[in-house]
Design a protein that fits this description.
The complex is a heterodimer.
Chain A lengths: L5 E5 L3 H12 L6 E5 L2 H10 L4 E4 L8 H11 L4 E6 L4 H9 L4 E4 H6 L1 H13 L5 E3 L1 E2 L3 H10 L4 E7 L2 E8 L2 E7 L2 E2 L1 H8 L3 E7 L13 H16 L4 H22 L3 E6 L6 E4 L4 H22 L4 E7 L4 E7 L2 E7 L8 H12 L2
Parallel strand pairs in A: 1-2, 1-3, 3-4, 4-5, 6-12
Antiparallel strand pairs in A: 6-7, 8-9, 8-12, 9-10, 10-11, 13-14, 13-17, 15-16, 16-17
Helix pairs in contact in A: 2-3, 10-12
Chain B lengths: L1 H7 L11 E5 L5 E4 L7 H20 L6 E6 L2 E8 L2 E8 L19
The chains are: A alpha/beta, B alpha+beta.
Chain lengths: 356, 111
Amino acid sequence: MEPHHKILILDDETAWLEVNREILGQLPSKPEIRTVSAGARAITLLDTEPFRLLVCDLKMPKMDGLQVLAIVRRRFPQLRTVVLTALEDEEFRSRAYALGVDLFWLKTDIQQNPKMFQDCVESLLGRDMETGFRGIQSKSLMDIIQMECLSRSSTVLRITRGPLVAKLWLQDGELIDAEAEGTRGETAFRRILAWKSGTFESLSAEPDRERTILKSVNALLLESAQNIDEAANPTGPESIEEANHRKTIWKLALVAREGAESVVATSADRQNEVEAWGTQYGGQMAGWTRRVTEVAKRLGDRLEAGPLLYLAGNSLERQVLLLPRDEKSYLVAWPPDAPTDQLFEKTKKLVASWDS
Amino acid sequence: MGFLRRLFRSRAAVQQLPAGTLTVNRDGRVVTSTIASGYPEGLLRDIVRDVMLLFRQANEAQMPLAEFSIHFASLRITAREMRGGAVIFLSPRSVPAVPSQPDSPSQPDSL
């Protein structure tokens, strides 16, 4: 028997806690409902018990809902969150979504349509974070390509991973061309297969596309699987050295191709893990990156301004863009004459390629 | 007007985002401000302190910056160095700059 999900409802008005308990208590999945009237108490409960969903009011004394959500987003990233408020100001809706909430509901809307609210929450409770390609969850790109080839399809698969876009050309079940991250043919195909998640769509076939891939798709898939396996589990010092060498060449080519001056990647937790390319001041730049990320994130939390997206800076000598990503932060330096309005997108693309 | 604010102040509230411009001298003291007077002074002091700190740390890392902007999901802080002090622009965003799910598709997926 599946365990019942637990829902925590946070509201400073007791009457609303009771209304919500009654509405959510009727969900088909029969979740366990807990209620609290203060943000600090809610965080303590979340610390001690596993909850699936937090339903949170915004306007509350001492700690408001946005403060609670900012803390929750950082400490419990897997927790689903729903804002339930009487504040009809669009600014709060934007700020709540910026904090990564899953749903934003007005209390007046719930009074008018409780069934829809129940359906939304039920759907949210059942949704899992899964790997795979959107549309076909839990399937790798290899599986998708094999399916296309087995069905003898003629199509163009457009694959997107964040800012990266790639294309695969299939003709009568054969892979004829690939394009990704500035490369083409078999190299591009191998790059694409290293992507672990993303989205894809089928476009119309292009039968006139020039053929650059002559090997069978099964041979390529086998080679790529072996390469990925060897990269993940290097067997001897030679293969480790070879893998590191390939990585170096790839990263230098990437920096040069995108037109960046240098890239520094650092982790907040593991301060010794610094990767610096194109600069002799890697250590100093990494230190600055870590400190700035920490200061900016702390400031964003205090101002309830949502997560830090990026920091851009410039001087006469260079432009820099600091991009925090999961556990790492990246500092990319660009020439002073690089178009400023494109730097964020270019940096995002470079960083996405960097770790793919 | 202070007593009116005290009379009608609600116990429960949601903090607003700051909007406007500040100029700060080299000692970190606010010289001029167009931020609403109701915005908490403590938070304004935090902004000024962190902006000055970021300029100083950039200098220490041999990477002096003339200007920087911090982009949060709902607020942008732009700071321009000005003879040791700074001019700081605070601009709330009405719409989040990025979707909450980074890999959201622009078009439907299909086989």
